[in-house]
Design brief:
The structure holds three protein chains of three kinds. By secondary structure, chain A is mainly alpha-helical. Chain A has one domain: Cytochrome c oxidase-like, subunit I domain (Cytochrome C Oxidase, Chain A, Up-down Bundle), CATH 1.20.210. Chain A is 66% helix and 0% strand. Chain A has 16 helices and no strands. In chain A, 68% of the residues are buried. By secondary structure, chain B is mainly alpha-helical. Chain B has a single domain, classed as Four Helix Bundle (Hemerythrin (Met), subunit A) (Up-down Bundle). Chain B is built from seven helices and no strands. The relative contact order of chain B is 0.16. Chain C has three domains: 88 residues; 110 residues, Sandwich (Immunoglobulin-like); 92 residues, Cytochrome c-like domain (Cytochrome Bc1 Complex, Chain D, domain 2). Chain C is elongated. Classes of the chains: A mainly alpha, B mainly alpha, C alpha+beta. Chains in contact: A-B, A-C, B-C. Chains A and C meet through α3, α5, α10, α11 and α12 of A and α1, α2, α3, β7 and β9 of C. The structure holds heme-A (2 copies), dinuclear copper ion and copper (II) ion. Copper (II) ion binds next to α8 of chain A.
């Protein structure tokens, strides 16, 4: 690339300065710019969901329902759950870092279907608009689970608009998933065999498989729900002999695999960070790759563990419990292998590593409490209590969001060409870790003692721990607002990053930071396995 | 950019190395998409079979009211259109412009005929009072009308969903017909017809499933 | 108990007040200890490695053949995990089956209570006919079986001190059996989100000594039992017109029906439990008894859930009379 027609001398040509107008962003087919479109939109959704969480925690400071009306509270946690799950966490790592890095890691010039990639962002935004409409037009009060018959026959909220939004955003997931799978299969650079792929790619691949196989079931379930509510075409309606428990089955058939959509990308990111900052090959690479696939596939067999007290057959419950235990074994394996990677490493504690280490600790606790709720007799007590709320925030926020932060900091120099202020980032990692535990650990105790979830007012004896939890949420808010500030700051004032500031391995670190428009001037030829930290880059 | 140099023969998008790679990617993408579509229908079929198992009497009786012969004729129409689109693909590969366009048009015509007959079927069901929603009077007089309603709900949902997919497929073929009329890049047309044909085959298969499970099983 | 003192004691060791509570607690604490040890192990390893192998430290890093992959090590830590998991799975499953498929109590004495949930209250009816809303009075040591259904959406019956929970579904009966073992007042929560006042759908389970319960029941005044009500309804809804022994209609005799297997017209056999009777009344053509014409009309929309439960109690009592005649 020698043509410097539009760039000033200080700034090397890159995808960032290839065009400046709004149009050059909104109609771009470059996977790196599309990643930015997603970055900006999901950040918006994260803070929207976070604002709802803030209101939830404020309400729960006192046992009485005083700050919000019961209706407003119900709308808050529904909005919080829907926005956080479908509009932040599911797209989070795949659509941003996945979009940005997958072609780079594969040595490709772009995704297989750049147009489809842009389309899926527009579909995402369309779905988001529907959901926001629902918020304005009466709100949605069904929880993120949309259980019938409440959602179809009883709720007064804008269920249709919200369900349509989720339905539409599902297609965005599907399109992204198809694009990733095809890209991984067909666009690998010469020499890049399957077992030379970075684990991040494996994780994206497995995630995409789940997106493609599970999301359509959610779509059709929402269609059935929608026509029942809109036209009275009863499918789950008990008055016609329909079965609301069938809805639960269909919903969880998607939503349990979906929790692994929210976990596997995190495992990919953490593997990259651990290897880089321990400066060592990932321990047991193949086992790590296969365990990702195993989690993805066996994850389809355990949905019934959300329904142990729903009235499904108790023998089905026993089978689902056993399968849930089995699906946890590969996760255990991964935790131990990450630790083994540290052994005899050269460990550095930059901010991405701090986030990655907190991922391990928090996911461990979240996963182990997942084991508690997978234990039949214990789930009878814990189902629909704050124990479950704590479990999933540990895996989703402690796990996935920590990994998202790890990845964001790790690749920030690559994405923007700027370094972020390291000290602030470490401070933020520590605040998030402390704030997180203060927020959610008390909820385990609350749940065990019997405090039900989705309660706007609660019994007096639960207040003490709720106050801790709300205080922790305040700290957490600081921890998440800090990066927003210093990352934006770094866009302008951060020091310029070299092509490989962390001395990491991987094709993405061989191109300049930020990368040129077409990624690679010449298609690279791969001769090493991933994580060749014993060789110079 | 490689794509510019050999534009006259085959247009390759910039991210690909070769036309083969591009075709491979397109086909894999389409297959994956069809998998998702199949799963979409299978969710509804799953629900249907759960209820069929519970209320098989009512469902069979309700299915008896459907026009299975008419729908059988429709099945034949649709399968024929599957054949014509396959022939169109063949013709495109052989660079036979007239045959390609003619067969495509025939496929579209058959599809429209299917939809017209389907519309007639809906109309006659409306006249017979078999629509259990939208505040229509429900005049089914077999046993267990409540669960018959459930059956008709499935009937209209599944056939409606299928009709929607037909409309999507027909529009896609319409676009190919119009854009391929000038016959600028035959490889491109061939690729498009192949992908549309794949989709159309899927629409056929789903119809066969719909036909057997709604009209025939339990007769 | 609701008015207990020390909040920590209350939260960490919630009141255990049913025959199953302490068994659940044992499992819970066993898991807390095991998982706690795992967490400790992982955190200690993280800490030790982090310090020892921090960049620039002088720790020994001689490479070995097994440094990057060692299947024996991987198997070595997966198998104990698997074994540990299987132990907890089995322990939890056995307890769960005991809870949801319980053996009849030794004295054969089960107190059956009808529960109807609706947005946003709990309605109970005692076998003596006494009704209450949101509160439920029980006798310590006496086994209770709840027969529950909902008039609208899904609710869930949850008494944390008893370690029990069961969703309550519309048009379906779910059952729950337990034995309170402590006198006191315990929270009753609705655990399944059911709309606006979900968090207000709470009550208290009041456990008393058996004589105290008797006294309480007596004080509620004279009421008819569900069977008596059911017998009256059986006539007023016109059931007796077909089902009375001397009726000219060819309809099954309902005495002795409850709990027995019933051959159906489609060749299968079902057990005549409460759900079957409910469906027979509201959706008669769903399951037609073998050898009878399918002429019974549907009473859907005409008979409330409460009346269906009373009719069921009556039909059930016909069986009890038959097995031990007065
Ligand atoms: C990222 C998301 C995520 C992830 C990864 C998980 C992971 C797991 N989840 Fe979780 N779960 C949710 C998100 C997630 N979950 C959500 C959102 C809900 C609630 C939805 C709602 O109702 O709103 C939920 C609810 C939920 C329930 C239903 C609870 C209820 O409603 O009653 C259950 C029950 O089995 C469960 C189980 C599990 C299990 C077994 C795992 C396993 O995959 C965990 C595996 C990991 C480990 C086990 C840790 C590592 C293990 C070791 C280091 C070995 C230790 C060794 C010994 C103990 C011997 N989850
Ligand atoms: C998927 C991701 C995800 C994430 C990231 C979070 C993040 C958080 N969640 Fe969320 N949560 C869910 C998913 C998630 N949650 C789901 C699925 C449910 C179930 C919903 C249901 O029942 O249907 C749930 C339910 C849930 C409940 C239970 C409500 C109930 O049952 O009654 C609570 C209560 O404490 C809670 C708290 C929090 C907190 C404190 C955070 C924090 O981590 C949030 C931190 C972020 C911030 C604090 C933002 C900081 C920014 C600001 C403060 C700016 C605000 C601006 C203005 C106020 C203008 N969540
Ligand atoms: Cu009733 Cu919640
Ligand atoms: Cu799950």
């Amino acid at each position: 690339m020698s043509a410097l027609s539009r760039t000033d001398a200080a700034e090397p040509a890159s995808y960032l300065n290839a065009g400046y107008g709004l149009k050059s962003w909104l109609l771009t087919l470059d996977h790196k710019r599309i990643a930015w479109l997603y970055f900006i939109s999901i950040t918006g959704f994260f803070f929207l969901g976070g604002a709802a969480a803030t209101l939830i925690r404020l309400e729960l400071l006192t046992p009485a329902g005083d700050l919000l009306s019961d209706n407003a509270y119900n709308q808050m946690f529904s909005l919080h759950g829907i926005v956080m799950v479908w509009f932040f966490l599911i797209p989070s790592i795949p659509t941003t870092m996945g979009n940005f890095l997958l072609p780079l890691m594969l040595g490709a010039r772009d995704m297989a279907f750049p147009r489809l990639n842009l389309l899926s962002w527009y579909v995402f935004i369309l779905g988001g608009l529907f959901t926001l409409t629902a918020v304005v037009a009466g709100g949605i009060d069904t929880g993120w689970t949309f259980y019938t018959p409440y959602s179809t026959m009883f709720s007064n909220g804008a269920v249709l608009a919200a369900a349509t939004g989720v339905f539409i955003v599902g297609f965005s997931s599907i399109l992204t998933g198809i694009n990733f799978i095809v890209t991984t299969h067909k666009m690998r650079a010469p020499g890049l065999t399957w077992f030379r792929l970075p684990l991040f790619v494996w994780a994206q691949y497995a995630t995409s498989v789940i997106m493609v196989l599970a999301t359509p079931v959610l779509s059709v379930t929402l269609v059935l729900l929608g026509i029942e509510r809109a036209f009275g075409i009863g499918i789950f309606d008990p008055a016609l002999g329909g079965d609301p428990v069938l809805f639960e089955h269909l919903f969880w058939f998607y939503s349990h695999p979906a929790v692994y959509i929210m976990l596997l990308p995190a495992m990919g990111v953490v593997s990259e960070c651990i290897a880089c900052f321990a400066h060592k090959r990932i321990f047991g690479y193949k086992v790590m790759a296969f365990s990702i696939l195993a989690i993805a596939l066996f994850g389809f067999l355990v949905w019934g563990h959300h329904m142990f007290v729903s009235g499904q057959s108790i023998y089905a419950g026993v089978a689902f419990s056993l399968l849930s235990f089995l699906v946890s074994v590969p996760s255990a394996l991964k935790i131990f292998n990450w630790i083994a990677t540290l052994y005899k490493g050269q460990i550095r504690f930059d901010a991405p590593m701090l986030f990655a280490l907190s991922f391990i600790g928090l996911f461990l606790i979240g996963g182990l409490t997942g084991i508690f709720v997978a234990t039949l007799a214990l789930d009878v007590q814990m189902h629909d209590t704050y124990f479950v709320v704590a479990h999933f925030h540990y895996v989703m926020v402690g796990g996935m969001v920590s990994a998202y932060m790890a990845g964001l900091h790790f690749w920030w120099p690559k994405i923007t060409g700027r370094l972020y202020p390291e000290m602030w980032a470490r401070v933020s990692a520590i605040i998030v870790f402390v704030g997180f535990n203060l927020t959610f650990f008390p909820q385990y105790i609350l749940g065990w003692a019997g405090m039900p979830r989705r309660y706007h007012a609660y019994a007096d004896e639960f207040q003490l721990l709720n106050v801790f939890s709300s205080a922790g949420a305040g700290l957490l808010a600081v921890g998440y607002l800090l990066p927003l500030l210093y990352l934006i700051w770094s866009l302008r004032y951060g020091a310029r990053a070299s092509a490989n500031p962390w001395d990491a391995r991987g094709l993405e670190w061989t191109v300049s930071s930020p990368p040129p428009v077409h990624n690679f001037a010449r298609v690279p030829r791969v001769e090493h396995e991933a994580y060749a930290y014993d060789q110079p880059q | 950019m490689t794509s510019r140099s050999n534009r006259t023969t085959v247009i390759i998008a910039h991210q690909f190395e070769s036309a083969d790679q591009q075709l491979d990617a397109d086909l894999l993408g389409m297959w994956l998409f069809l998998v998702t579509e199949l799963l979409l229908f299978s969710g509804a079929f799953l629900a249907f079979s759960v209820y069929y198992h519970q209320y098989s009497e009512a469902f069979s009786a309700a299915a008896g009211e459907l026009h299975w012969l008419l729908a059988g004729f429709n099945t034949a129409l649709l399968l024929t259109s599957g054949l014509t689109v396959a022939l169109a693909e063949q013709a495109a590969v052989e660079n036979n412009r007239r045959a390609t366009l003619g067969l495509l048009a025939l496929t579209i015509a058959l599809g429209l005929a299917f939809l017209a007959l389907k519309g007639y079927e809906y109309h006659s069901e409306y006249r017979a009072g078999l629509i259990p929603f939208l505040d229509q009077p429900f005049a089914f007089d077999g046993p267990d009308p409540i669960h018959a309603m459930l059956f008709y709900n499935f009937y209209f949902t599944l056939t409606g969903l299928h009709a929607l997919h037909m409309i999507i497929g027909l529009s896609a073929m319409g676009v190919i017909l119009v854009s391929g009329y000038r016959w600028r890049d035959r490889h491109r047309v061939a690729r498009q017809v192949r992908i549309a044909g794949l989709y159309w085959a899927f629409v056929d298969i789903v119809w066969v499933l719909v036909y057997t499970s709604l009209y025939l099983v339990g007769r | 108990m609701i008015e207990a003192g020390d909040p920590w004691q209350l939260l960490m060791f919630p009141e255990a007040a049913s025959s199953i509570s302490s068994r659940v607690d044992h499992l819970f604490w066993a898991m807390v200890v095991t998982c706690g040890l795992v967490v400790l192990l992982v955190f200690v390893l993280l800490l030790v490695f982090s310090i020892r192998y921090r960049r620039g430290s002088r720790a020994d890093r001689t490479p070995s053949a097994r440094l990057n992959s060692n299947h024996w090590l991987e198997i070595g830590w997966s198998v104990p995990v698997l074994v540990g998991f299987l132990v907890f799975f089995a322990w939890g499953a056995v307890l769960y089956l005991d809870l949801y498929d319980p053996p009849a109590p030794a004295d054969g004495n089960v107190r059956e209570i009808n529960v109807i949930a609706k947005q946003w209250m709990w309605k109970f009816q005692h076998p003596e006919g006494v009704r209450e809303i949101n509160d439920l009075h029980l006798a310590v040591g006496q086994t209770v079986r709840l027969r529950m259904t909902s008039q609208d959406v899904i609710h869930s019956f949850f008494v944390p001190a008893f370690r029990i929970k069961q969703d309550v579904l519309p048009r379906t009966y779910t059952e729950l059996q337990f034995t309170p073992t402590k006198v006191g007042r315990f929270h009753l929560f609705c655990a399944e989100y059911c709309g606006l006042q979900h968090s207000g759908m709470t009550g208290e389970v009041v456990v008393m000594s058996p004589p105290a319960l008797q006294g309480w029941l007596d004080r509620q005044g004279q009421t008819r039992t569900p069977e008596q009500d059911g017998a009256r309804l059986f006539r007023s809804y016109g059931c007796s017109g077909c089902h009375a022994p001397d009726s000219s209609v060819h309809a099954p005799n309902l005495a002795g029906l409850y709990g027995k297997p019933v051959p159906l017209a489609n060749g299968t056999t079902v057990r005549a439990d409460a759900q079957y009777i409910r469906d027979s009344i509201l959706l008669p053509s769903k399951q037609v008894a073998a050898g009878y014409p399918a002429i019974m009309p549907s009473f859907q929309g005409q008979i409330s859930e409460a009346d269906v439960l009373k009719l069921t109690a009556y039909i059930q009592s016909l069986t009890e009379q038959e097995t031990d005649p007065p």
